[in-house]
User: Fold this.
Amino acid sequence: MTARIEVPAAARWVVETLEAAGFETWTVGGAVRDALLGQPSVDWDFATAARPRDVRRVFRRTVPVGIDHGTMGVLDDDDTLHEVTTFRKDVETDGRHAVVTFADSIEDDLARRDFTINAVAWHPLRDELFDPFGGEADLRSRRLRTVGAPEERFAEDYLRVLRALRFAGRFDLAVEPSTWEALRSAMDGLGGLSAERIREEWVKVMAAADPGVSLDLYRRSGALGRVAPALGDADDDAWSAALTRVRALPSAMPILRTVALFEGALAAGTDGGRRARAEGVGRWMQGLRFSNAEVDRAVHLLATPASPPRADASDADQRRWLAKVGSEFAEDRFALIEVGVVTGQAEADTAERLERLRTELAACPALTVGDLAISGRDLIALGMKPGPHFGDLLVELLDRVLEDPDANSRDTLLAEVERRADA
Assistant:
């Protein structure tokens, strides 16, 4: 027997208000699924017999968040937005989008959902679970299967292929055999999905508590080669080691986890190899419409040194390493190095080498031309004519400052410029 699901007061208020107005209303989807698993949820959605115009009439404050699809936002007294969607059913699908129409029953609404574990509804006023497709039993059995024929469900929206892999990993579910076979047969459909939808799924996987299971399913099913082709041929040992590193990073760092996956799974070796790998990942991220900041962050980290300087490196070499990595990205690189330490994949003295880098960075050394005590304006004041040689000269001055931080004073650097001019 299903245990009683505790629904937050605000969610209960939404149901009570609509039911009092004569409209059947249920809490649905992920919040109900999570509650059946004993996991808390703050994001409660609703399916109702009320049409959008009815929702507007019943509630004082509403927002048309997706009115073309029957979804209205209802604001409670705390200004929390609750999405209320009219019962719907699919009329036509093309593998990317569905044409829907309003339906008359909760069963019609649940029948259009992807997997049985998501096709569950709870009525908080009657303490009633509506589960026409056996989602609760599948959760107890740790099984993922589609609502109805899997071939049809995937053909309706090929993003469900990736959602299946994510849900199976997130909830530790075994994909039911016919669902698995249909999923693998639907791989060609991934090519028709928008870049944005694929990116959103990727980020959700990388933000999971343990993304490793889903990523392994991506690989086993063939989805990895379609979504991230460069990773499709990764060596088994390198792939396994990369997953270990990804798991060791916090779930709040999906981009850094992505960097760790590519860095661990794809060999780079030389500076040129690192740059080539970084550029390839950058093009992949741009293709999936990651933000420019996310692309720049990943590319920079993948193109710069992954290991700290050797234990016998000079202080100047420490600063030159930090200059390559950049102070903006130093903490990211430190986090990636620490992952190697905690997973046992780094050299024995790596922790000590990392601590030395942290100490050096804490001293706030000049690491860029912009950190120098003089600029191009000072060179002009000396009577020098602006040109590309300004940049070359400032880079040379930075190298001197990296060698000797005390040299980063206005007088010392101007004297060095004059000395070079007289030479």
Notes: The chain has a mean pLDDT of 94. The chain is about 55% helix and 10% strand. The domain at 1-140 is CATH 3.30.460.10 (Beta Polymerase; domain 2). The first strand starts at residue 25 and ends at 28.
